[in-house]
Design brief:
Strand content: 5-15%
Oligomer: single chain
Structural class: alpha/beta
CATH superfamily: P-loop containing nucleotide triphosphate hydrolases
CATH class: Alpha Beta
Helix content: 40-55%
CATH topology: Rossmann fold
Strand order of the largest sheet: 2-3-1-4-5
Largest sheet: 5 strands, parallel
Distance between the termini: 15 Å
CATH architecture: 3-Layer(aba) Sandwich
């Protein structure tokens, strides 16, 4: 039995990490085989994680946007081949904190690189792997600023308000009319959001 691939997406401070952890615990409690991973990088992938460190290093402000894209794709190729595809082949559920929809939003919509070219390169890098479900936690950049409680900004967090507004629009454009996308407001109560997400994901197993 082939597994299921569920991707969590959202802007800065959308609560992705909290919600993906809650879904992981929900599925584990049902005795389902599930792994938790992330992009850029990939849990248990040394190579992909080293590339992540380069991408997010706040000292790398001179990084060219094409170089940034290629690093994301390099990390993804390693992540998919080493971690995600083997897990899916053995029937596991893979929960991933960000995947290629982030690339289309950040490098496509916000960096304004050619989206058709990005998609072609991305399909090759990810071995044409397609997620089964995208869970998008929606929050505006202005709302996200109010949630900041620390100074742990990575290189992409430090981008302008206009950049993050373009990212959000890039996500919403992808979700529009796409039944693989489940859009949830990030402003509700944590438990209420988690229940909506777990109910949606549970439809895979009814």
């Amino acid at each position: 039995m082939e597994g299921k691939f569920v991707v969590f997406e959202g802007g800065d401070k959308s609560g992705k990490s909290t919600q993906i952890d809650l879904l992981y615990k929900f599925l584990k409690a049902k005795n389902l085989e599930v792994i938790l991973t992330r992009e850029p990088g990939g849990n248990d992938s040394v190579i992909a994680e080293k590339i992540r460190d380069i991408i997010l290093d706040k000292e790398h402000i001179e990084m060219d946007k094409r170089a940034e894209l290629l690093l994301f794709l390099a990390s993804r190729a390693q992540h998919v081949s080493e971690i995600i595809k083997p897990a899916l082949k053995t029937g596991k559920i893979v929960l991933c904190d960000r995947f290629d929809s982030s690339t289309f939003a950040y490098q496509g919509a916000a960096r304004q690189l050619d989206l058709d070219r990005i998609k072609e390169m991305n399909n090759w890098a990810k071995y044409d792997l397609q997620p089964d479900l995208f869970i998008y936690l929606d929050i505006t950049p202005a709302e996200a600023v109010n949630r900041r409680r620390d100074e742990k900004y990575d290189r992409l967090d430090r981008e302008t308000k206009e950049f993050h507004e373009a990212v959000r629009q890039g996500y919403l454009d992808q979700a529009k009319g796409n039944d693989k996308w489940f859009v949830v407001s990030a402003l509700g109560q944590i438990e209420e959001i988690a229940e909506k997400i777990s109910t949606k994901v549970a439809t895979f197993y009814e």
